Model the fold of this input.
Amino acid sequence: MAIKKYRPTTPGRRISSVDAFADVTKTEPEKKLTITRKKMGGRNNTGKITVRRRGGGARQRVRIVDFRQDKFNVPAKVAAIEYDPTRGARLALLNYKDGEKRYVIAAQGMKVGDEVMSSREYIEAKPGNRMPLGKIPEGMAIHNIEMEPGRGGTTVRGAGLSAQLMSVDAGKVQVKLPSGEIRLFSVECLATIGSVSNPDRRLIRWGKAGRSRYRGRRPKVRGKVMNPVDHPHGGGEGRNPIGLKHPKTPWGKPALGVKTRNPKKASSKMIVKRRK
Done:
């Protein structure tokens, strides 16, 4: 994948860049593997806004992605590399030998015509193949990792990301995550070989507010320009400081640099080294 720049015909165009889509081989998705996406605008089932600054955006159809890849020992051929409007990574359309089609997150280097497979035993460690962590050679780059066996991949799924398998010992595997955290996983948890596709997505410059609106991102207002009733930083005349010892959230809780993870969380014992 590459980043494309246009001639600076407008102020917004001057500083923006776009995805070149050079690796995408098919423009229309498989209709049976998509569903409509209802816009919630950051609201929960009672109509209250629980996630601020969401709303609008272009109409999208959600691709049904197979994160489990539990069709074991059945070879599948990569039929197409497709764009997904709801994520940064590319999707690979797999055609299985029994005729079934599924979407999976494409690994970097996957091409049309490649053959990939999922197995509970050791198979060739090439990009796109999936097997238990206990069967993967040490030092390999992996992605789409299960936190619990059989649950499906829940971590390391973003564009360009990969984790590194460090060591295997006593039924546990040490994996270094993209954040720098080293964490223990069960040897039975499945993972896919390679890094996630589309690594250059992070280099895209959106250029103007309008492109963020297309993505469903509404404007963000600073707390210090609000009224006191709306935010702890609000009030005052002119450009006043926040007037507090530490920054706070709109609900008065400490922000910026305060640990929010529950120290009594059961999975804390699985963390060998915290991220910096």
In short: Residues 223-271 form a domain with the Ribosomal protein L2; domain 3 fold (CATH 4.10.950.10). The chain has two helices and 17 strands. The radius of gyration is 22 Å.
